[in-house]
């Protein structure tokens, strides 16, 4: 069972207290975007074997959204942070890199 620490209320919540919201840090496109951009936003998702950033809502707690960094293979949780954050905090990136040498996240350097 996954256990996440809610960064808003501080509760260590089991996954049964949460609602999943899919992949985090997606670039959203507004009115007037191209059909290709909109299609990519709707249907193109990462499905990594390894580290993944996901949106979760503390549904049976404070009700707020947050992002969790976890490994999809081992279910190891590297940390959580508020959903309003545009990229992973440096301490989570460092925690992941310490356990997964050579790991990188393309958006951390501002690349697409």
UniProtKB/TrEMBL annotation:
Lineage top rank: taxon: Bacteria
GO molecular function: sarcosine oxidase activity
GO BP annotations, alphabetical order: tetrahydrofolate metabolic process
InterPro entries: SoxD, SoxD_sf
Name of the protein this chain belongs to: Sarcosine oxidase subunit delta
